[in-house]
Design goal:
Helix content: 25-40%
Order of helices and strands: EEHEHHHEEHHHEHHHHHH
Oligomer: single chain
CATH topology: Rossmann fold
Shape: globular
CATH class: Alpha Beta
Radius of gyration: 18 Å
Bound molecules: adenosine-3'-5'-diphosphate
Strand order of the largest sheet: 4-3-5-6
Length: 293
């Protein structure tokens, strides 16, 4: 048995986290009942999922914006496949928000009616690599690596939850016409959060006043989310997911270009070659460092 098998469960060619997944849920994904006003946040891990959960919760729920309701973003936008709190999704009031890392080909059939909406957040894969490396060493349910080199090999081989990043983004992008989907770039959100929130509102058909828009932006900044127990996942990480130490957080750095502090010149060149090979002719562009723009 491969070391990774202890942590990963492969279902139809895609790697899920073994201990949190319920095989029945996977078997029934195709038939999962979609409502026309459902919204799905879909990401490859470490691309800003919890950021999107917070933004969408703030856009959709007045009680989240003005803090009159104390609900964690995990409950506002639960994971479709990792239903840790065993929520009965059929009883959730509309509009429901879900989060998910699934590949396009495992998406519930009902999403293809193109009424329900998907927000796909993507991020440059070198920052994902670094974020994922730290996260894997933090979370007890993921395989730790001795060094970045070891993790980089696993990541590039797709021996991680989410499988190969290249396949995930290519799959969703190349099948975008089958869905009602908006692609949002992490780095654009970082550069201009207000415009990104406005774009999301327009896609979601939610009209917010200027004041509400500012409130969403303020509460979705890295620092405010880091300090906000409803959004920072600190309790969930410690009490439900399980952490190897007390220093790590989901809200780690939240920057663009952190990979420059971690990858050697050789690793970077190797990554570039593999990136070129896999992403040649891919229409979406990636932002590797904001200072370069
Ligand atoms: P880093 O590890 O690079 O800091 P996910 O939610 O998909 O697991 O992604 C987590 C990554 O998103 C982490 O990246 C985290 O810091 C970043 N993130 C979360 N909220 C953010 C925010 N408000 N602004 C910028 N980055 C954020």
């Amino acid at each position: 048995m491969d070391d990774t098998d202890q942590f990963l469960l492969n279902f139809k060619g895609f790697n899920f986290e073994r201990t949190l997944i319920d095989i029945d849920v996977l078997e029934n994904l195709d038939n999962f009942e979609i409502r026309d006003d459902d919204v799905f946040i879909i990401t490859y891990p470490k691309s800003g999922t919890i950021w999107a959960q917070q933004i969408l919760s703030l856009i959709h729920y007045e009680g989240h914006r003005n803090k009159t309701e104390n609900v964690e973003t995990l409950d506002r936008a639960p994971f479709l496949e990792y239903n840790m709190r065993k929520v009965d999704f059929s009883k959730m009031p509309s509009p429901r928000i879900f989060s998910s890392h699934i590949p396009y080909y495992l998406a519930p059939r009902g999403l293809k009616n193109k009424k329900a909406k998907i927000v796909y957040i993507y991020r440059n894969p070198k920052d994902i690599l670094v974020s994922y490396y730290h996260f894997s060493n933090l979370v007890v349910r993921l395989q730790a690596s001795d060094n970045l080199e070891q993790f980089m090999k696993q990541f590039l081989d797709g021996k991680v939850v989410g499988s190969r990043w290249f396949d995930h983004i290519r799959g969703w992008y190349e099948h975008k016409h089958d869905f009602n989907i908006l692609f949002m770039k992490y780095e654009d959100m970082k550069k201009d959060l207000k415009s990104s929130v406005a774009k999301l509102c327009s896609f979601l058909g939610k009209e917010l006043s200027e004041e509400d828009l500012d409130t969403v932006v303020r509460q979705a900044t890295f620092q405010n989310m880091k300090d906000d127990p409803q959004a920072n996942y600190n309790t969930i990480l410690r009490e439900e997911i399980g952490a190897r130490n007390n220093d790590g957080h989901f809200m780690r750095r939240g920057t663009v270009g952190d990979w420059k502090r971690h990858l050697t010149v050789e690793q970077n060149e190797r990554f570039d070659k593999i990136f070129q090979r896999n992403m040649k002719d891919f229409p979406l562009d990636f932002t590797w460092d904001l200072s370069e723009q």
